[in-house]
Every structure is written in C-alpha cells, then in structure tokens.
C-alpha cells in the first residue's frame, strides 16, 4: 500500500491526500514534520535530503516534491481523470500547477508566515503589506482565468484544481484585506461539493 510521510496539516501533504481521494487510492499516512517526528532524522533524510514533507514510498520507489508526487499518482492511475494524456491538454494543467508552485507561492509566503504562522522572521509590516498586495494581484489573475472557464485548465476538473484549490483556501482563510473576486468565490463553492476538498482543503486549515 502507498505510504505518505507528512503531517495532515501541511498544505503540500494535503495536495497528495486530495489527489488520492479523487483517484480512490488507498494509503497509510505517518505524521512527520513540526510537532511530530522530525524530518531531520537520518531515516527521513535518507528518503528526502531536503528534510521536507511530503514523501511517498510506493513499494521500493521513493518520491518527494508534492506536485511531482501528484503527477506520478495520476500517471500511475492511467485513466486521465486528473491529468489528460493529450499533450496540449496536459501541458495546460501543468502550466497552472507550475504557476502555483512558483509565482503564486512566492507572492503569499511573507504575508502568510507573518499573519498566520506568526514567525519572528516575518514581522516587517511593510513587507507583509507588499506580500498581501502581490498575493491579491495573483489571485486576481486566477479570477480572470476562472471568469472564462469552469475550472482552472478548462471546463473539466483536473490536477490543477487540486493544487490551486488549496491555494485559494489559504487565501480565503488568512486574516487580511481581500478584493472581491466573483469568479474565485464561485469556484471555491464549486470545489466544495467534492468530498476530497472538504476533507483535505476546506477543512479549517489554511
């Protein structure tokens, strides 16, 4: 059975859990990360030298990086439910996944660490304000995309919606000023009919 290493409150672990829910993949999960088993242990570093969750162990195969794990699970399932086989459709899904992992994540990091995690290293009010503004700008770009399609990569739910649905949830739950983005709000409610999102996304964790 697939083993997932990582605490259930981690947004990146939740990507993998939601993907498993959508694909009906059974798994065992072990708590690793802050507050649980330390990822600096030699046994964990042997699996992921970056000391970060999630990590999966699938038989004798080990993989880290959440988006790569989600792609792997989709490709292993082989039915195209979340990641289309057709090259252009697949590229569109992966484009938005990569945007989430780079542009969007970099936009919210300072604000989230300061406002939610209360990290001593992220307390500069000017930098928090700048990060909030940049975060809202990027969610505005997502709103423009969702104004033209039901889901992020088109009219069909895909893996892009797993990673970006969790990002929208984080944006919604962070205590800060947010513009009204109607398409994003509708999208958030549309995702909320999915059991996997309610279990691992809209579950009270930012």
Automatic annotation (TrEMBL):
GO molecular function, one term: transferase activity
Entry-linked Pfam families: GST_C_2, GST_N_2
CDD domains assigned: GST_C_2, GST_N_2
Keyword field: Plasmid, Transferase
Record-linked InterPro entries: Glutathione-S-Trfase_C-like (IPR010987), Glutathione-S-Trfase_C_sf (IPR036282), Glutathione_S-Trfase (IPR040079), Glutathione_S-Trfase_N (IPR004045), Thioredoxin-like_sf (IPR036249)
Claim: Transferase is one of the keywords in the record: yes
Highest taxon in the source lineage: Bacteria
Domain GST C-terminal: 86-206
SUPFAM superfamilies: GST C-terminal domain-like, Thioredoxin-like
Annotated ranges, domain GST N-terminal: 1-81
PROSITE patterns recorded: GST_CTER, GST_NTER
Gene3D superfamilies (UniProt xref): 1.20.1050.10, Glutaredoxin
Keyword field contains Transferase: yes
Membership in a protein family: Belongs to the GST superfamily.
The name this protein goes by in its record: Glutathione S-transferase
Organism of origin: Massilia forsythiae
